[in-house]
Amino acid sequence: MDDHFCTKKPKRLLEKEDAKPSMLINDISRMFGHRVRRESERAGISHGNRKLLMELSHEDGVSQLSLVKHTHLSAPTVSVALSKLEADGLVRREADVTDLRQVKVYITDKGREKDDFIREKCHETEEIMLDGISKDEYDSLIITLKKILSNLIDEEEK
């Protein structure tokens, strides 16, 4: 993805007097994701692999179907990605001892190293985002964003 293209729209948005919070939040999220994706791909970690490794680092030993549901990747994409990740020594698959029809996927130490790299890039991006933001501004921002998220969750649960 062209870096210039990624920043062109948000720069225009900064100049808009009537920019809405949703527009700003969307562009911040998109730019955050773009930077982490770019840095991961430079290290040889594709978008789908990144999502799978991050999911496995949170919940190891899950089924392929569970990975499909939690990553929102298609079943064929997950299947192909897992084969590559397994060949690269980043994950391993084992039969479930309680249900031999099931295969569980586990992240390896090498996979955790890749996941740690991704997390480091997320933390670096977070630091860039918060540069020049005071503690009071940060605390206020968190409170406001949680209210916005809560409002959307409440609406979804109606």
Topology as a string of helices (H) and strands (E)? HHHEHHEEHH
Main β-sheet: number of strands, strand sense, barrel status? 3 strands, antiparallel
Could you tell me the strand content as a percent range?
A: 5-15%
Low-pLDDT segments, ≥5 res: none
Q: Tell me the number of strands.
A: 3
Q: Globular, elongated, flat, extended or rod-shaped: what is the shape?
A: elongated
- Rounded to an integer, what's the Rg over CA atoms? 19 Å
Mean of residue pLDDT values: 90
What is the helix tally? 7
Major sheet: arrangement of strands: 1-3-2
Distance between the termini: 38 Å
Helix content: over 70%
The secondary structure category is mainly alpha
Describe it.
There is one protein chain. With 158 residues, the chain is mainly alpha-helical. Helix content is 70%, strand content 8%. The protein contains 7 helices and 3 strands. It has a 3-stranded antiparallel β-sheet with strand order 1-3-2. Helix 1 (3-15) runs antiparallel to helix 2 (21-42), helix 2 (21-42) crosses helix 6 (109-129) and helix 3 crosses helix 6 (109-129). The termini are far apart.
Characterize this entry briefly.
Helices cover 70% and strands 8% of the residues. It is mostly helical and 158 residues long.
List the helices and strands and how they pair.
Layout: H1 3-15, H2 21-42, H3 47-58, E1 62-63, H4 64-71, H5 75-87, E2 91-95, E3 103-107, H6 109-129, H7 135-156
Antiparallel strand pairs: 1-3, 2-3
Helix pairs in contact: 1-2, 2-6, 3-6
Identify the notable features of this structure and list them briefly:
three-stranded antiparallel sheet, mainly alpha, 158 residues
